[in-house]
Amino acid sequence: MAYVIAPAEVPSLAVSGTQDRFPVHRVYCVGRNYADHAREMGGDPNREPPFFFQKNPDTLVPDGGVFPYPGHTRDVHHEFELVVALGKGGTDIPAARALDHVYGYAVGLDMTRRDLQNEAKKAGRPWEVAKAFEHAAPCSAIAPAATIGHPARGRIWLEVNGEIRQRGDIDQLIWSIPETIAHLSGLFALRPGDLIFTGTPAGVGPVRPGDSLHGGVDGVGTLTVRVA
Ligand code: MN
Question: What's the CATH code, domain 12-185+203-227?
Fold first, then answer.
């Protein structure tokens, strides 16, 4: 047997403190998971069931990388997020056992063509053009849970050109990491290598070519990306 065309490369991220790589399967994202961000987007900050969308795994950009300003938009926003990396898969995973499935944690940017997302919301269309475009998923190296544990609180922050734009604490997540894994695993068969972008705190806003984005979650890691 031979493939009739060359198979795509396996997308992967660095594992901090090692020479090893984490192979990425799917990239799931939680929408609206901090109350103050839900409010700034005109939504209801109450505890409605979480909702999910996906980004393409081959749109990851590593720490220190470049985000080329995309076409077909005049309003690309940064959404800085804690990212969960699964080491074990499963379906219908109970929240009480969800953390056993986590390999580690990272920080990432859910880059969003906000104008296209707003058009899609109004027209009841899917969000891929707003969320899953090229280079839309900058993500740091993964810090293994075996090293850092399972963070449940800690500052989350993003600076643009040295000015603080987003800040919060991961203890403000509307749906905690175990609850998110429990919900998501009811809807999809989770696999080792899946990433979950867990949602962004308030302060999302536009980026411009030349901007430097630098953010982190205390105890997890940092990410620096330049907009080209
Ligand atoms: Mn997001």
Answer: 3.90.850.10
